Backbone:
């Protein structure tokens, strides 16, 4: 029987949070006038994911996992900057095309965490 260590539990937690983040983001993009608290939940979850990614940098022992953690941290930061543009910029071009880029980067982030989970499982 395989038990998860603390690192793998954090990877599963952040993967769940990213899926939740993507669901709230989908709601925000589909509703004409979304509820404000969904936006606040989306922002809070993004900040929480960013903070957990910093913790993952600290607790990852392997250099490959540490490098992937840095990449994820910067991708999360870049996605947050794009998300901030939705609030600050009211450009039609931005509202039409940037949600796709925002979503594709989110898929890349969760894919990186799946790769990190696979690497950590093969190391043990």
Residues:
């Amino acid at each position: 029987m395989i038990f998860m260590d603390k690192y793998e539990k954090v990877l599963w937690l952040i993967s769940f949070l990213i899926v939740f983040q993507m669901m709230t983001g989908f709601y925000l993009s589909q509703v004409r006038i979304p509820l404000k608290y969904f936006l606040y939940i989306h922002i809070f979850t993004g900040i929480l994911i960013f903070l957990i990614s910093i913790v993952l940098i600290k607790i990852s022992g392997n250099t490959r996992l540490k490098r992937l953690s840095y990449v994820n941290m910067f991708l999360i930061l870049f996605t947050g900057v794009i998300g901030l543009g939705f609030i600050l910029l009211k450009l039609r071009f931005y509202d039409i095309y940037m949600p796709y880029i925002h979503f594709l980067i989110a898929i890349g982030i969760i894919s990186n965490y799946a790769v990190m989970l696979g690497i950590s499982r093969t190391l043990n």
Q: What stands out?
A: The chain is about 85% helix and 0% strand. Residues 59 and 84 are 29 Å apart (CA to CA).
